[in-house]
């Protein structure tokens, strides 16, 4: 549902701490998945959620732009909304027979 758009590789922040070389070198790494990496835009930053190996392959091919599907949370969540209002959360009664902290 989200169309891909061109993103510069140097604007992406990765979220993975490991890189699997077998996935990087596989010819069919996108056979069962989406052809485009997925990113989330939050507070002005683009976080690469899926597609690190595709982005790295693009970088190794000396491309500086790739097509990415971006979920823009900045557009969905107003900047003044910092989280749920805890006053609106109803207090649940304790479970009978359970010790209280």
TrEMBL record:
Residues 82-101 are annotated as: Disordered. This is Transcription regulator of the Arc/MetJ class. It comes from Geodermatophilus sabuli. Pfam families: VapB. InterPro entries: VapB-like_prob (IPR014447). It comes from the Bacteria.
